[in-house]
Amino acid sequence: MYDLIILGLGPGGFEAALTALRKKLKIAVVEKSKLGGNCLNRACVPTKYFRTGAHILDKIPAFSDYGIHIKDYSVDYSKAWEGKEKGISFLRKSISQLFKSKKVPVFKGIGRIIDKSKVEVEKEDGTKETIEGRYILIATGSKPVAIGNIVPDGKYILTTEDYMDNLKELPESMLVIGGGVAGCELGFIMSKYGVNVHIVEIKDRLLPVPFVSKEASKLIQRKFKQLGIKIYLETTLKDYQIKD
């Protein structure tokens, strides 16, 4: 029997695993997808990789102020994608090696709690295995929801969960529904990589969250307008049409 079974190895599950290991607990991890969860594979890490590239592109016009003259340069999105994949792969391998060195078993599959101390793991090949633990930690994260009739299809309509898996080629234009943190970050990145970006936000400002002041929102909005990003505030999307 394990001291702790962790369902999900995203940021929460990983931190819990590290804490448990420091306390010398015997643990097991259940993960249905890639080690590291959405943060490592589809969100925080890959978006920051692309955001770094976007910031560099944004600063190029100011290089001449420091005597640095760049006459010709090109943007190779496929190369950036390749670099992102290499970075993520390295971090996943690091997690795997850490768990192997600590003799932590990672059960690949979907975990279902069948009673207060047992978890049934359904593996990719359909077989099932039951493991027992004194405690079970649910760290499975969350999923984005569909908005009305806007149903994600993984190709034209993407969510924050899958665009860093599927957006291997840049579209000519992109509509970002939601001007929050994730929407603004994606809009900025795509704009700097040459995509015609539109952002729709139901509230009266971008980043309409308590920890962002209205003054900061105005600065972001001004910057986005300079970049050519089209912003539609107090706006909702009622219908759409996809043109291939």
Note the main attributes of this structure.
single chain; 244 residues; alpha/beta; five-stranded mixed beta barrel; three-stranded parallel sheet; 7 helices
Give the assembly state of these chains: single chain
**From the helix content, strand content and strand pairing, which structural class follows?**
alpha/beta
Strand sequence of the main sheet, in spatial order? 1-2-3-4-5
- Which percent band covers the strand fraction? 15-25%
Overall helicity: 25-40%
Detailed description of the structure:
It is globular and about 60 Å long. The protein has seven helices and eight strands, in the order βαβαααβββαβαβαβ. 24% of the residues are buried. The strands form two sheets. Strands 1-2-3-4-5 form a five-stranded mixed β-barrel. A three-stranded parallel beta sheet has the order 6-7-8, with helices on one face. It has 244 residues and is of the alpha/beta class. The protein has two domains: 1-143, 3-Layer(bba) Sandwich (FAD/NAD(P)-binding domain), CATH 3.50.50.60; 170-233, FAD/NAD(P)-binding domain, CATH 3.50.50.60.
